[in-house]
């Protein structure tokens, strides 16, 4: 693995549930990212954090709420999701936002019923 | 959009053969990267080529970049069953540092 871990690896939730995805990187990087990967669609960037500050919010619905308490941890809080939100959610990190090579975690497979 | 578009969408070859995947993009870039993704897993960075470079090698991988045609190719030589995966190109545009934009990927199957 690449030094980026994600938990849980699989999550099934109802539309009224509240859950959180967790990402941790052990690489000493300053930038962290959330991506959504749906079948037959390009990888979609959701959020970018650099030095704990959000620098990119790619028009993501408010039912997705990110949190970055420090440069090593990133959360994605989920509430009142829709079935179309079912996807693989990938976390990534890079040395900083301007350093382009990104290291990805294994992803959380989310199913919304 | 500067989104990279990989071609073909799917490729099936025999073990030992070479695999070539192409990527086209629309705007000027700083760098172009190739990533691999095994089914249902995270992406793994393979190689980065800068806009002023034309060719780069890493092991069995060879990447070319033609900025005049806004295209790149990834060649995997002497393919192995373990190379079976999806391959994505990702670009960031000029000026400044912009988030990477990924294409839809090429699904490569290497048959033993």
Brief summary of the model shown:
The complex is a heterodimer of chains A (113) and B (112). By secondary structure, chain A is mainly beta. Chain A has no helices and 11 strands.
Could you describe the 3D structure shown?
- The complex is a heterodimer of chains A (113) and B (112).
- By secondary structure, chain A is mainly beta.
- Chain A contains no helices and eleven strands.
- In chain A, the strands form two sheets. In chain A, strands 2, 4, 5, 6, 9, 10 and 11 form a seven-stranded mixed sheet that branches.
- Chain A is globular and about 35 Å long.
- The N and C termini of chain A lie far apart (30 Å).
- With 112 residues, chain B is an all-beta fold.
- Chain B is 0% helix and 57% strand.
- In chain B, strands 2, 4, 5, 9, 10 and 11 form a six-stranded mixed sheet that branches.
- In chain B, a hairpin with a 2-residue loop joins strand 6 and strand 7.
- In chain B, 33% of the residues are buried.
- The mean pLDDT of chain B is 92.
- At the A-B interface, strand 9 and strand 10 of A face strand 4, strand 5 and strand 10 of B.
Mean pLDDT of chain B: 92
Poorly predicted regions of chain B: none
Report the helical percentage of chain A. Answer: under 10%
| Main beta-sheet strand count, sense and barrel state of chain A | 7 strands, mixed
* Assembly state (oligomeric): heterodimer
Order of helices and strands of chain A: EEEEEEEEEEE
Cα-based radius of gyration of chain A, to the nearest Å? 13 Å
Radius of gyration of chain B: 13 Å
Spans where pLDDT lies below 50 across 5 or more residues of chain A: none
Mean pLDDT metric of chain A: 92
SS elements, strand count of chain A: 11
Order of helices and strands of chain B: EEEEEEEEEEE
Q: How many distinct helices of chain B?
A: 0
The largest interface is: A-B, 26 and 22 residues
Could you tell me how far the N terminus lies from the C terminus of chain B, measured between alpha carbons in angstroms? 38 Å
**Residue share in helix of chain B:** under 10%
How would a crystallographer describe the biggest sheet of chain B?
6 strands, mixed
Percent of residues in beta strands of chain B: over 45%
Instruction: Give the number of helices of chain A.
Output: 0
Counting helices, strands and paired strands, the structural category of chain B is mainly beta
């Amino acid at each position: 693995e690449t030094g980026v871990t994600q938990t849980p690896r699989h999550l099934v939730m109802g539309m009224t549930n509240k859950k959180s995805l967790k990402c941790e990187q052990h690489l000493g990087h300053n930038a962290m990212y959330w991506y959504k990967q749906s079948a037959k669609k390009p990888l979609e960037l959701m959020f970018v954090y650099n030095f704990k500050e959000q620098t990119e919010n790619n028009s993501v619905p408010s039912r997705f709420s990110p949190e970055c308490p420090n440069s090593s941890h990133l959360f994605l809080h989920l509430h009142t999701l829709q079935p179309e939100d079912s996807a693989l959610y990938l976390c990534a990190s890079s040395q900083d936002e301007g350093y382009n090579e990104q290291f990805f975690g294994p992803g959380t497979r989310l199913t919304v019923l | 959009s500067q989104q990279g578009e990989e071609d073909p969408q799917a490729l099936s070859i025999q073990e030992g053969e070479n695999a070539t995947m192409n990527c086209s993009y629309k705007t000027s870039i700083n760098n172009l990267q190739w990533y691999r993704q095994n089914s249902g897993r995270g992406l793994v960075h393979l190689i980065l080529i800068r806009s002023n470079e034309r060719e780069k090698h890493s092991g069995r991988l060879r990447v070319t970049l033609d900025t005049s045609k806004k295209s790149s190719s990834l060649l995997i030589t002497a393919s192995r069953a373990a190379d079976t995966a999806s391959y994505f190109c990702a670009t960031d545009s000029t000026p400044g540092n912009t988030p990477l934009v990924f294409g839809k990927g090429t699904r490569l199957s290497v048959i033993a």
